[in-house]
Structures are given as structure tokens and as C-alpha cells.
Amino acid sequence: MLDWRELFGRDGDVVLDVGFGHGESTIAMAHAETDVDVLAVEVHTPGVVTVLDAIEHQGLHQIRVVHGDLLPFLDRIAPTSLAGIRVFFPDPWTKRRNHFRRLIGPDVVAAFTDRMRFGGRLHLATDIADYAESMSQVCDAEQRLEGGVIPRPDWRPLTRFERRGLDAGRQPTDMIYTRVVSRMVPGPSVTG
Fold first, then answer.
1. Separation between Cα atoms, residue 54 and residue 58, nearest integer Å
2. Is the pLDDT of residue 182 over 70?
3. I need a labelling partner for 157 at 20 to 30 A (CA). Which of 38, 74, 163, 164 fits?
4. For the chain, what is the domain count?
5. Which residues pair with 86 in a beta bridge?
6. What percent of the chain has pLDDT over 70?
7. What CATH number did the domain enclosing 77 receive?
8. Tell me, what's the pLDDT at 184?
């Protein structure tokens, strides 16, 4: 298990930033929230390089980067240790035969919820209407979460993926869910 104090050198809120793409939102939010530590996970090498460059040249020392797949890495995050999780514009796998590949499903949402403390927030965003509906259904079914669709927050930076969607006429859907039940509910493993 990761020790946040050892990893970040301080005690504070830790947010998991999943699939940060090119890193625009990760960098902008780190500038806006210097008191929040960010564990950013991404498989896209150019995005990882961009965030690492920002850490070094923009003084964003509250960010740590994991270059790899989130699911095997989740087992290293202690239960109830995160203040929040952000998943902005995950791969929508738009073809119906590939929907099973979508990240936001019951097992992953249960694993996310396990790792968020009481009051922790899960913030999701997508511009694919049927994925937004699926995300809402999955999160609404997780008994330890409360929340739903919200107006697009002006504090969430515009990402490259969101801009492409807007240019194509798609509107983003944001949703925020808060962990409202503090007891652990055993859930399935996401890695096996």
C-alpha cells in the first residue's frame, strides 16, 4: 500500500486523477489547488511527459505520475484514503461490441468507492450521451454514493477531448457523487 505522507512529504488531501490524457486539466487544477496532492495515472506516454515537464518546470511538486494501467495499480491504494477521484472523458468505446471495455462499470465504481473516505467525491465527465447514462446508472446503483448530473463546473478546465466533442456538436455531461456511507462493503476485485 502506498503511504501518502511518504509519497508526498506532507499530510493532506489526495486526489486520484485517472486517464489525464494530455494533462491539461491535471496541470490547471494543480495550479488552482496547491494544497491538494494528485496521483495521476495515464497510459498515454506524451501526456505523461507533458505532466512530468510541468512538475519540473512549473513547480507542481504535489503531483505524482503513474505511467500505466489503473486497474492493477488500484490494489496499492489503501481503503478510505482518497479525498476524491477524477475521471474526465475516458475512452468511450463507442461501438456497442466494445462497451464492455469502458472503464466506468460496477466493479470499478465499487473499487473507487472503497478507496474514497467518507465525504470523498467522484467526479466524472463525458460527452458521449449513452456513456453518461451508463455512468449515472452504475453510480446510482452504488449504495455508498449519492449525487448525480450537475451543470458543467466553470472550475473544471476544458480538455482537448472536450474541445473536440464541442466542435463535433457534443455537449459534456458532468456528474459528482459523494461517498455517504463509511462502512466497507466487500466488492469484487477489479484485477482478477
1. 5
2. no
3. 74
4. 1
5. 17, 123
6. 94
7. 3.40.50.150
8. 52
